[in-house]
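User: structure tokens for Cytochrome c, please.
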Amino acid sequence: MKQRLAFLFCLLVSGVMAQTTKPASTAKVATKTPGQLLYEQHCLTCHQANGSGVPNLNPPLRNTDWVTGDKTRLINVLLNGLQGQEIEGEVYDNAMPAHDFLNDQQIADVLTYIRSSFGNKAEAVTADQVKTVRVKK
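Assistant: Done. Predicted tokens:
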């Protein structure tokens, strides 16, 4: 009888534990793209999480032809850096260093991320496009 009660007690406890243990979440975990990771590592501090930039220091990355327009100009900004440039009628004085230490794919990834984030809807940049601009540098 004691063995049967112990067995029933174990069944009861395991049943209660099974009911109180939450099942693993079936929701998909958002994964970051390589471009987003590069943005967070190299760009976020100056251009902010929402791409707004910092007035008079670092230009915004949203709602600007510098981002959504000519890819070659944008690639050159990453390869060569930029300082004291008038962008959309505002002058930004903080020096952006060259990021030519990034490889062609990394530059393509981060620029593609920027061109498709913060409300931007511009086509991707490819590693071949970056390579072409880098060779002409």
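User: Anything notable?

Assistant: Residues 2-20 form the longest helix (19 residues).
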